[in-house]
Amino acid sequence: MRLSPVVAERMTVAFMWIMAAVTIGVLLFIIAFILVHGLPHLTWDFLTQSPESMGRRGGIFPMIVGTLIVAGLAVLIAAPIGVATAIYLTEYTREGRLTAVIRFGADCLAGIPSIIFGLFGFVFFAITLKLGLSVISGALTLALMVLPTIIRTSEEAIRAVPYAYREVSYGLGSTRWQMVWHVVLQSALPGIGTGIVLSLGRSISETAAVMLTAGSALGLPHSLFDSSRTLALHFYILSREGISMSNAYATASVLVISILVINLCAYWLMQRFAAKGGRNG
Amino acid sequence: MTKTQRAILVLGTAVLCWQLCSGCRRDDGRTLNVVGSTSIQPFAELLGQAYGKKHPDHMVDVQGGGSTAGVQAVANGLAHIGMCSRSLKDEERDQFTPIIVARDGLAIIVNPSNPVSGLSREQLRDLFSGSIKNWKEVGGRDGPVRPITREEGSGTRESFVSLVMGKTRISRAALTQESNGAVKELVRGDPAAIGYMSLGLVGGEIKALLVDGEKPDAANVLTGGYKLVRPFLFVTKGAPTPEARQFITYVLSAEGQKALESEGLIRAQ
Amino acid sequence: MKQDRVISAILTLIAFSAIFGLVVITFFIFREGLPILLRIGGREFFLSSDWEPKEEHFGVFSMIVGSLIVTFGAMVVGVVFSVGLAIMLTQFSPPRLTAVLKPVIELLAGIPSVVYGFVGVVTLVPLIRDYLGGPGLSVLAASIVLGIMVLPTVTSISIDALRAVPRPYYEGSIALGATRWQTTHMVTLKAARSGIVAAIILGMGRAVGETMAVIMIAGNALEIPHSILDPVRTLTSNIALEMGYASGHHRQALFATGVTLFVIIMILNTIALAVSRRRVGGRNSK
């Protein structure tokens, strides 16, 4: 039975709408499931107190601090290095085999499973460098994980800056660095910022790699060499051990809300990027 | 760069320097790293907090990872004390000093809806090895048996293997979970499941089986009736450091042992 | 200018350190993993299903199969949706729906894998166990969850591929009287085919690498699954389960597993790159 093109078209459009609805539905379900179970337990006390009795009671303050330090430090380390590398690759070298190889390498490393970074971090940072199960081990491992992504997104953002900008800058007599700093980076900043913000989101969500580098201690980290539990790991442990489902949901709610906020920032940045005519300029 | 940006940069750098410097006072011996068995972890955390309240400048950091991970951590220098929920192996005994801090029963658990209430050790072995594939062979309902086991490095698994399985291998079709809680959750939801876990953590939502006719509770373990018992060990490399010794002494004290007993463990004796 | 040269030197140093750092990781993993491969031989490691670390048996075959089955399942679940969404967003979708769908897809990408695993265990697993049989922790559960997790990746790369099709193709087809759907499946899809294939392959790479969600939802049994309702263990789960306590040969075997994953993903990335190159170099007549 051959369908007339018009009927086939209508069916396809209907099918597409169903798929869109299902996709949106799945996301809403996941978020709603977590928030509905978790928000009732999300009190100010929960956010500011320390856990007691393995997390059955009390709050998640040390985990929030731990997550901020580990993820924040990771991005703080990786961002300058990544952006500098991207600048080097685009502005200071000629396009050729070397850059193609480096780009391929960065792409591959961006795809390496986080568990392998965890394995590396455990053996190299925690044991060989004697940093132990600590915030700094976790941050260094995560920094390595997000570095390829930052290099790639920064590179794309820098490349999207129209060549005319560079020509004008040179025409006015600037040096290469002046051009890069005052012209190219300013234009590419939203795009670079998006990549960094998304990397922050990835660091916060990461569990496998921090499990064996930052450890899972419940206390507030007093120094970079203390172990600390991140929110994602805390959620994992709470839910797996069945210690307290209500606290698990509440922890997950904090995670989900943070991701929403981070994505919002990234989205806003992307809008500014597009508005500056970056992508297609 | 505007004034605000510069101010933030300076402030941020200052904070970072402060953090790094405070971090440089690394191993001042004040923070005790205790790593290992997920079975012992909750109890160690409990005692660690109580200990921290008595000695405010001594922090006890407890982490999981599994019994063998704990021993490894002590060997690698990552931890001062390793938690081990099984006896040390011969090759480990040379390097490490074990100290019994409590004893724990090993419970065999099934779903509450399972009509079976007790089994012999041989039956347990056959169920977990896959020789017995249907519950009706041991008096249950007609249906497949689903054994659940722990990961390789788990002390709970080691103890189970040495107490029940002997030389027989656990079935390759057994589901593997990484914690007592995960095993418990699984058994709670699956009528056909059978697993093992720490007796002290069983709680009310699942059923613990009688083994060889003996009731699985702490009192019965103390009298020696219930035979599936394993030691909870604190393991150190050679002699414990002074801080470690202080914590261990607290755990072995009357107060510490009483706290453990109230949680369902058996005292070290 | 002197300042420029100094900055140039600093940038060069940083860039090479970064690249060096990333190379070191690769080198380290291979260095830790290769010795055991050479010791017990590739055949024993890759083709034997006997994973018994205590007896020094390190055969990962059942886990390779596990990873492949779960990845394949994820693609079965996810590809239709991902490519369908991509087609929809580029060809059919009204702008307002696009404005909603794109952030939704990005959010799906941001949700932590432990949350996916947890929701899957709490909602999907009991459903499978009660209505379809088996323990619930199964290939099916893992495939569904992974399919959702790789959806953002495959969708966004497919969108790029579809957008790259030159506009005249679309306009020419419409001018000839074709409907949008006819244009899509007879012209645009064919033109974007290699890009979409690349997207799918990269999605596979992501699925192969997923760890936390899979540990929670796949059951981790050592046996090769006989049906989609059977539990399964993947390469990544194996590493995560045993990483903390492995030492000596066992740890080397885990690194060797890491090498295996590394190589699989490199192969997938290379194929994806090769496949997507073909479209850039002009049309192949069909």
What can you see in these coordinates?
The complex is a heterotrimer of chains A (281), B (269) and C (286). With 281 residues, chain A is mainly α. Chain A has helices at residues 5-38, 44-48, 61-92, 97-111, 114-128, 135-159, 163-171, 176-205, 208-211, 231-241, 245-275; strands at residues 51-52, 57-58. Chain A has one domain: MetI-like fold (Orthogonal Bundle), CATH 1.10.3720. Chain A is built from 11 helices and 2 strands. Chain B folds into 2 domains: 3-103 and 231-267, Periplasmic binding protein-like II (D-Maltodextrin-Binding Protein, domain 2, 3-Layer(aba) Sandwich); 105-223, D-Maltodextrin-Binding Protein, domain 2. Chain B contains 10 helices and 12 strands. The longest helix of chain B has 22 residues, at 3-24. By secondary structure, chain C is mostly helical. Chain C has helices at residues 2-47, 61-92, 95-110, 113-131, 139-163, 167-175, 180-209, 212-217, 235-242, 249-280; strands spanning 51-52, 57-58. Chain C has a two-stranded antiparallel ribbon with strand order 1-2. The model of chain C is unreliable at 280-286 (pLDDT under 50). Chains in contact: A-B, A-C, B-C. Chains A and C meet through helix 1, helix 3, helix 4, helix 5 and helix 6 of A and helix 1, helix 2, helix 3, helix 4 and helix 7 of C.
Indicate the CATH topology of chain C.
MetI-like fold
Number of domains of chain B: 2
Oligomer classification: heterotrimer
Helix content class of chain B: 40-55%
Number of helices of chain B: 10
Number of domains of chain C: 1
In CATH, the architecture of chain C is: Orthogonal Bundle
Would you list the SSEs of chain B in sequence order as H and E? HEHEHEHEEHEHEHEEEHEHHE
Low-confidence stretches of chain B: 23-29
CATH class of the largest domain in chain B: Alpha Beta
According to CATH, the homologous superfamily of the largest domain in chain B is Periplasmic binding protein-like II
What composes the largest sheet of chain C? 2 strands, antiparallel
What is the third-level CATH name, the topology of the largest domain in chain B?
D-Maltodextrin-Binding Protein, domain 2
| Largest sheet report of chain B | 10 strands, mixed
How does CATH name the architecture of the largest domain in chain B?
A: 3-Layer(aba) Sandwich
The mean pLDDT of chain B is: 85
- Distance from N terminus to C terminus of chain C (CA atoms, Å) equals 56 Å
